[in-house]
Hints:
Blueprint: H1 5-17, H2 26-36, E1 40-47, E2 57-62, H3 74-79, E3 93-95, H4 96-99, H5 105-117, E4 122-130, E5 134-142, H6 149-188, E6 191-196, E7 202-205, H7 207-212, E8 215-217, E9 225-227, H8 231-246, E10 251-255, E11 263-268, E12 282-287, H9 294-305, H10 309-319, H11 324-330, H12 335-349, H13 354-362
Antiparallel strand pairs: 1-2, 1-5, 3-4, 4-5, 6-7, 6-12, 8-9, 10-11, 11-12
Helix pairs in contact: 1-2, 1-6, 9-10, 10-11, 10-12, 10-13, 11-12
Amino acid sequence: MSISVTYQRELALPLIEGIHESPPWGGLMRELVARTYARRAYLVINLANAGADQEPSIVQVAAPRAAADPPLEYWRIVALQLNPQGEMRPLRIYSLDEMLDYGRPERLASQRLALQDMGIHYARFLRVVAGGAADARMLLVREREEFSAAAVATLSAIAPHLTAALKTLAALIEQRLQVALAQSALQRLGIGQMAFDATGRVMAADAHANALMAFAPEPGPVAGRRLQLMPAISQALENACAEIASGRVASVPLPLDTHGGLWLLLRKADLLLDQPCALPAVVGVLRTYKREDAAKARHAIAMIYNLSMNEASLAHQISLGKTIVDAGRNLSLTPETSRSYSKRIYAKTGASSQADLVRLILTGLAPLS
Length: 369
């Protein structure tokens, strides 16, 4: 089948753009339904490392004439044990007859009865896999007549391209997970980050920085944003980025408001990114005061240093800047009991002083609880 301009516009483009849809490939499925004259369809994506209780991603599509029809019931269809549903060969187009269990008359009868109840008289099944990372299954159904050879050829033509796109999606999902892990840890510490070019243009910002700051679109043809700051501070930011990018200075702390309540630490970017990429010149780091959930922190401290919960509670109170006596008072402990607990805490943690104990806690895992 030659790849026509129409094919490229109606199928290839939705295939590429659909990777970024949530759930993916709704536009592609609508085009496939239109080109194959299907009545209803679904695309189901299962990730190999998804939890047993995690639902697959399901895209349900219906032709305009079937807008009032109920969606295809994926789990009901799975329960029919259509053969060889579990061993479908990737990229092969299966008809409905090939999926029915003719070897077991009773099961065949129940399968046909259930399919008729769901309005499925003619169907085409397709499976694509992404190197063990993801598995996608497509079903298109019609009610009154069989799929044409042209419709099957369309599915056959798109199948290898969908396989490649599924591999790309699986890799993108892994990268999204890596980003989410990093951002979650930083947000727990009250940290936000931005990437700047040498002129002070914001190339990217994480979720915490986006929530803290106000941005304006970059004027002109270049993509990106600018921080909305007072003119003097904005100029200082641009100057600092230029200085750091040129190598004249390594880092610059910059107040972002006239009261100095929020500071931005600018430093030379040292990110390792695969090509092609637009490397930032400067990384900006924000930090707001944020402490962890006290109950979770106490549990972590107790487990890590083999402390009792009372000892862990006192250690956590001390990490908040309290004196031993004040920390104990917050926990309804007498000064004598607080001092006794503190000696045990120092012995178990190896801390040489109150300041050393605070250092151990704040640089350990408790703030990430």
